Amino acid sequence: MPDSAFDAVIIGGGFYGCSLALHLRRSGVGRVLILERGDEIMQRASYANQARVHNGYHYPRSLLTGLRSRVNFPRFSREYADCIDDGFEKYYAIGRIFSHVTAAQFRLFCERIGAPVERAPVAVRALFNSHLIEDVFRVRETAFNAVKLRARLQEELRAAGVETRTRCEARRIEQTDTGLALVVETPTGSERIDATRVFNCTYSRINQLLTASGLPTIPLKHELTEMALVEVPDALKTMGITVMCGPFFSVMPFPSLGLHSLSHVRYTPHYSWQDGDGVYRDPYELHARAPRRSNALHMLKDAARYLPVIAGSTHRDSLWEVKTVLPRSEIDDSRPILLKEDYGLPGLTCVMGSKLDNVYDVLDASTPVAGSPTFR
């Protein structure tokens, strides 16, 4: 096979792209290449997020999403145990007003998906404003260290023989007599790469390649988001807290920096837009041009109404990124996996997931047949 020809090319070196590349190689696919636009893998959405390893609790309005998270939680925790921080207690508090679920409904949901849940100790419940919080539950969730996870995947990709090219952007894809061809912009110019199959795993930029190649866009909603990084008071240092289910917040350990992430349903998104019907705007360009006026103070002030002790937190920094979801997720907060095979061209697959720990739903559906990257 020529140096410029591969059995499978993965566009996007995020967690999903890297995991898929490893899965293909371990399943017997020959030459596998990752093309990453940035300086190294897993620097964008795979790093700039809440680092939560979901166990289903976050999705009481979507039984399927909650159940898939519950199923995948132990598998992810075992496989990446060296990248997991479980040295904190996790609590979910249910709001009395504006919440889409009651405390009784939340407990019933947990029982239905088999997620461990119990009422929080009295000392923990006392941290909350009882006029605004109906009840508080102790649950089982963890956080991942994104820096350790990146290092782990870099080593596994090398060991598996996956070739990774950074600072390379796939500009266009077209069909050939033997498969697919990519026009790729590299630090030294443009080149052509041939592939039997191509996997578009570029998350918020999935439609960038499709639009440039004259293919239909996929309806997607994007948000420019701010994840605040805070130093919390001593009383919260060994805790992760989520107030739900509505216009509330989460404060979680962010292991790679030794801080806590703070996200708020109202203040984390700064603005949003949608792709579809021939309309497309490059999320990376909008991200680069957007002003960085932090909403961290608003997040803390509103969170303190429910959890007064959080007012003693100090805002240290913020992570800015584009969050992308399927528009139908706005109805019930579900997080389905986008997996579209042969999208626009035979051999082109578009993949998008919103949670790292649910990557197995893609891998389990992507079993190569007889060593080829053509899936069952």
List the helices and strands and how they pair.
Elements: E1 5-11, H1 15-26, E2 32-36, E3 52-53, H2 63-79, E4 84-85, E5 89-95, H3 103-113, E6 117-119, H4 122-125, E7 133-139, E8 142-144, H5 146-160, E9 163-166, E10 169-175, E11 180-186, E12 189-200, H6 206-212, E13 220-231, E14 239-244, E15 249-254, E16 259-264, E17 269-275, H7 283-289, H8 296-306, E18 314-325, H9 329-332, E19 338-340, E20 348-352, H10 360-364, E21 368-369, E22 372-375
Parallel strand pairs: 1-2, 1-12, 2-9, 5-14, 12-20
Antiparallel strand pairs: 3-8, 4-8, 5-7, 6-7, 10-11, 11-12, 13-16, 13-17, 13-18, 14-15, 15-16, 19-20, 21-22
3D shape: elongated
Low-pLDDT ranges: none
Oligomerization state: single chain
Count of DSSP H/I helices? 10
For the residues shown, what is the average pLDDT?
A: 94
Termini distance?
A: 25 Å
